Glycosyltransferase (Candidatus Iainarchaeum sp), 390 residues
Amino acid sequence: MKTIGIIIPYAFPETGAASMRAHAFAMALQTRGYNPIIFAPEKGLAPNQTPYQIIRFKKKIMLGKLFQEYDVQLVIASTPPADLGMAALIFAKLQRIPLFADIRDPWVFDKQAVGLIKPKTLKFAIQKMIEKWFYTFADERFVVTAWTAALFENGLGIPATQFKLIPNGVQTEFFDTKEKNSNIRNKIRTKLGIPKKSIVFLFLGSVWRNIPEFIRQIKPTLLEKNAFLLIVGNTDNQSTRHMMEKINQVIEGEELRERVRLSLNVQAQEIPGYLHTSDIGVNIIGESLQYSVTVKTYEYAYAKLPILSIGPKEGALAQFHRTLKSGYYCNTWEEFNAKANSIIKNLSEQKKLASQDSKFVGEHFSRSKWSDKVVDIVDSHLNNSLIIKK
């Protein structure tokens, strides 16, 4: 049984795009007869029960020894951050192990987009060089949207044709439950103190810098329509904890605080319950994130929620919205608020359309479907390597 190492910046029990995507890859690899092992940094967390091994390392330099110890035959390195991927690449190349770069988001360009790094600085130049080298010397390169590949062609000079499209998607098995969705909905609403008939807007995922402004904008709708905002997010690093402080400042007034509920650091298997609890899924991406389709987009759609998004005029998310029958994509807060009220007014019809969107996403954007494609590429690469060696 060949061992495939998957390198990610965090693993279960931490929930996020990296751990969810790696989980899907690992399950698909295991189903096809491989021995997947996830390697992730040590964070002092309780071990998570998974059908595959999760090995923790304290320093990136330990990766080389781990590759040898576990006889890793191929590495899939998930980025960002690209410096972790680059470390994996160096040790893989030294041991003649093929490495696939699985690019969830750009690294340096994403940091620039959210204001974490300034262009035309030495730090930017160094990180850009690391990112380019990592992609250039990887044996395969996966991206989650075609817009990401175009960004790399324009920004790094790597032809878009060198990247394979492996979109994100929804972990459909997490939605399989013996308990009725209506029962789950009632339980969580009771737990959160949300009336059964109230309309709930859901923001799912990392707590980003745009959320405080979103809360200010949605405030009139929440108060006028007797609606609630449910934020299910992660606060696992300093920047998101700082953002939570800002969010708490925005909802300080009793009137608005009564309309906002926070559920933080929820486990992956529990996410569908919060989706079933809600009525409208909210997406907020910055103007410079044209390449992004958030994972929650697929989860909202699969859970039959009409999606209300705001982002750049054109981009991957705007393009995806055009495939949906329910919800709206907006470019301004004025339009966003108008569409929010429109969805509320026509919620019954919107939910019927969202049911069609759920089928579409289940057919075309299940994680298992795209993970199988990754395993096909692994099969092909390892089989070709055997032929060359012979």
